[in-house]
TrEMBL record:
Domain of life the protein comes from: Eukaryota
Organism: Dallia pectoralis
Protein name: Uncharacterized protein
Amino acid sequence: MMLCFGSVGLVLLALDMQKGHGNPDSAVWNRMETSERNYYTRYHNMTEISEWMEVMERENPDVVSSMIYGQTYEKRNITLLKIGLSSPERKKAIWMDCGIHAREWIAPAFCQYFVNELLRMYKTDTKVHKMMKNLDFFITPVVNVDGYTYSWLNESTRLWRKSRSPGPDGCTCYGTDLNRNFNANWGTIGVSTDCCEEEYGGTKASSEPETQAVTDMLDEMSQDLLAFITIHCFGQFIIFPYGNPNTLPPNYNELMAVGLGAANAIKAVHGMRYTVISPDILYPASGLSQDYARQIGIPLSFTFELRDTDEYGFILPEDLIQPTCEEAYVGVQHIISYAHDKAFYSSAAAVTTTLWTTLMAVWVSSATLL
Ligand SMILES: *[C@@H]1O[C@H](CO)[C@@H](O)[C@H](O)[C@H]1NC(C)=O
Ligand SMILES: *[C@@H]1O[C@H](CO)[C@@H](O)[C@H](O)[C@H]1NC(C)=O
Ligand SMILES: *[C@@H]1O[C@H](CO)[C@@H](O)[C@H](O)[C@H]1NC(C)=O
Ligand SMILES: [Zn+2]
């Protein structure tokens, strides 16, 4: 299959014609639409994702810009896309990151899908348009760029989870679990001090440059961020703070209610069940990015564990990318809608939670028809 990128659009057009869809009556728009689906139903390596980020920026210069906000241990750039309609005023924002665990390939695939949907929907959907006007979306498709690149090397590296920094003196293994390395109860529970283990938390909080990069961005933006969402797999969970069984966030009930709303919205798409839970019940853990985000004052903080429930585990087949992304998109949108409505029509927020669960189902059915 031909995949030399000049522009995603061009390549996809070529793929489409190979398949014999060269109907002279069909508009270019239709061919793009068909072929985009093709792109978003496959996993892409880091080179392709970087190319894709450039294409997104180039093709949507009025709403998309990119920003390099850190470098990995192996000196690769950590890049996010900022998406939103420009405004003279300081905007509220939403954070989403994917690919902090290398082998969870559905996560970067979801970030790509999410960006594409946002860019497609805001032109026609008034709600999405309003959110693009009031909010900026800061989306990192791959946080753990070294680990993700490593997981693409060959079959024996496919299940790599951690970063790629060498262990401390006396330990010959590589990698820190970046989602045990944040400065939130660091090193206390559900973490390993053995650098050969999958859940090795590092030598100290934020010892890893990837963790530090995300931390710096969150610190800088904490006043503006309404929601923090980090994407993982697998297990079909919506997890919220805290990982430590002895502390509850002040808005525990709100987090639970919004999480349940998201799970309901997800179920309405393809019938998949997501369990809403805090990790103190699921598996206590420390150094989590979601806990750090909540601790610095970001009110809504969630970890999504996407499909499946252990049939394929981390090796989710490509034909399940689309349904997984479709339902997760709606779940994430539920949270973002809630955050948006609460900030911009504050007193109505309680009511709109329920309302949006219903409306979202309608939105889904129209989205999946295209
Ligand atoms: C990434 O994927 C493309 C398309 O399959 C391939 O041509 C390229 O060699 C890959 N790059 C790396 C670094 O694996
Ligand atoms: C990181 O980004 C800079 C600025 O765009 C670029 O010059 C550099 O080549 C990038 N580094 C890597 C390793 O891709
Ligand atoms: C896979 O890549 C790793 C890292 O380069 C290498 O050590 C290993 O020998 C490779 N395994 C196979 C089966 O090619
Ligand atoms: Zn994970």
